[in-house]
Amino acid sequence: MISLKKISHFHIYYIGLILLAINLPLSVFGLSVSQFILAINWIIEGKFREKYDRLRREKSVLIFLVLYLVHILALAYTSWPEGFTGKGYNGLDDLRIKLPLLLLPIIIGTSQRLTRHQIKTVMLWFTAAVVSSTLISTGILMGIGNYEIHDIREISIFLSHIRFSLLINISIFALAYYLFTEYRKIRQIERLIYGLIIIWLIVFLILLQALTGVTVLVICSSIFVAFQAYKIRKPALRYATILIFIGIPILVASYVAAKVNDFREFDQINYNELPASTINGNPYVHNSKNIQVENGHWVGLYICQDEMRREWNKRSELNYDKKDKQEHFLRFTLMRYLTSLNLTKDSAGIAALGSLDIKAIESGKANHLFNNKFSLYPRIYETIWEIDLYLRGGNPSGHSVSQRMEYLRAAYGIIEKNPMLGVGTGDLQHAFKQQYIEMDTQLTQHKRLRAHNQLVTFIIAFGFIGFLLILWALFYPVHLEKKFRNFLFMMVLIIGLISMFNEDTLETQPGVTFFAFFYCLFLFGQKE
Fold first, then answer.
1. Cα 70 from chain centre
2. What tens digit of pLDDT does each residue of 246-289 get?
3. CA-CA distances (angstroms) from residue 448 to 319, 370, 396, 403, 456?
4. How far apart, in whole angstroms, are the C-alpha atoms of residue 212 and residue 219?
5. 133, 25 Cβ separation under 8 angstroms
6. Structural domain range at position 319
């Protein structure tokens, strides 16, 4: 134990890093408090001349700071005053949110470097917090607490399910790394605990149905296997490992391709032979212009609204003409659900529904496949459905994947107008608003968001000149510090970069803190 009298500024710094790691999966407020502790301790410690000299020597830290500097420089051509201090997203807000890109490299880069054991301690505390968060989420899924869950991804209550899945992946590969590299040094019970936690986190990741997280797991698992194969001396075992490395992505790609082929097996319809009325004699509507399908069946066929309204209102407290619990119009959710079971959209179809089906429809589930909480396939199906609908001209509103495709279409239009310098740090929101009007998007107003792709967002804001500067600031320090062979750092970097293709990772406090913390910890904070 360290006595209070012997606590140094380094000890406070070390504890601050641990607190920051713990709060990443648990508390946004805790992230701010942890960084405040680190900053205050750094200031009180003094030794500014020594820190200044270290910064001058540590060129990699200065280069990484260019990432933040680009944001400051781009204020020069941000609109005034809207882009600086206007309502909603503005330039000053952007600089505030991204302060970790300025503070963490300076604090970590000028502080005493941590030993391998201390880095491991930080990572184990982080993993313990991630596991705690997964257990809390599992409790919510099992009905503990007063949380009403309409989508399984809502069980991640502390941060977005996508960001949570990235943190889970970091924990998985940190434990796998320590398990393999320290296998002979650690006790058997410790190996067992590491192994069980890895298995649990993989199971939970699949349960969470975050496709970004599962994609990261597959890619990084292949890299991990390749990393281990490189160190195997026995040729037969090395080649077997390489086959696994090659086989994992091939198997996953084959599975997804098979599901896409299954999805595109639509019912062949002869509209002249369709029945004109229900068993009760009421007329059917067969809408050939409705391009939606569920499990190969056409949503626009066998529709009798009057019968559905009457029978549904008998069985549910949610009115047929109102919205479900996910704020979609209930009648559309109902029609898709009935179609997924190959039932007619009339009184007979609703009569065939069980009580669990009624609850599923009320909660906003549009396909009976989505009732399976413990399978990843419903999420894969939903993604294929969204892409298919969008490519055939459907409205992307309310569908995460197809919305992202529309966001990128808008982003491309903005980049065409401002290719070299971009629109500036604070004008992203205004640029997207104008672009959506010009392209006459089908997106509803509250769904007209930004790119959801960090790399594209950089190009929009700073143009290709700023984008190239940012890439240099991200990758050249890795070369200077010779960290390409540091497995944990490379896992963090790869996970962060993959997330940037699907999220504006650095546009929110949890996202920018996650990336800046791990990047700086392994690049600037660890002794060789």
1. 25
2. 777 788 888 888 888 888 888 888 888 899 999 999 999 998 88
3. 28, 26, 11, 9, 16
4. 11
5. yes
6. 271-371
Residue 367 lies in a domain: yes
Residue type, 263: F
Angle formed at CA 208 by CA 207 and CA 214, multiple of 5 degrees: 90
Cβ atoms 369, 325 nearer than 8 A: no
Count of alpha carbons within 13 angstroms of residue 184, beta-carbon side: 0
Residue 282's CB: how many other CB atoms inside 10 A? 13
CA angle (115, 117, 122) in 5-degree steps: 95
How many beta carbons lie within 10 A of that of residue 147, not counting itself?
Answer: 13
- How many domains in the chain? 1
| 3 state SS of 283 | strand
Q: Quick one: tokens of 182?
A: 């320290």
Pairwise CA distance, residues 67 & 73, whole Å: 10
Are the CB atoms for 370 and 341 separated by under 8 Å?
no
Check: CB of residue 215 under 8 Å from CB of residue 498: yes
Backbone angles phi, psi at 503, to 5 degrees: -145, 155
Contacts of residue 391, defined as CB under 8 A and 6 or more positions apart, other chains included, come to: none
pLDDT at site 3: 52
Instruction: Measure the CA–CA gap between 240 and 190, rounded to whole angstroms.
Output: 27
In a domain? residue 300: yes
- The secondary structure element, H or E, covering residue 298 is strand 297-298
Residue 247 one-letter amino acid: G
Distance CA 376, CA 17 (A): 35
| β-pair type (293-294, 297-298) | antiparallel
Determine if the peptide bond prior to 81 is cis (ω within 30°): yes
Instruction: Report if pTM > 0.85.
Output: no
Tell whether omega for the bond before 510 is within 30 degrees of 0, i.e. cis.
no
277 CB-near residues (< 8 Å, 6+ apart): 283, 284
Given its phi and psi angles, is residue 324 left (phi above 0), alpha (psi -120 to 50 degrees) or beta? beta
Q: For residue 345, give the 3-state DSSP assignment.
A: strand
pLDDT tier at 1 (50, 70, 90 boundaries)? very low
- Which among 383, 452, 443 has a CA at the least distance from the CA of 411? 452
Amino acid code (one letter) for 1: M
Beta bridge partners of 526: 114
Which run of H or of E encompasses 297? strand 297-298
Is residue 423, in this structure, part of any structural domain at all? no
In a domain, 346, yes or no: yes
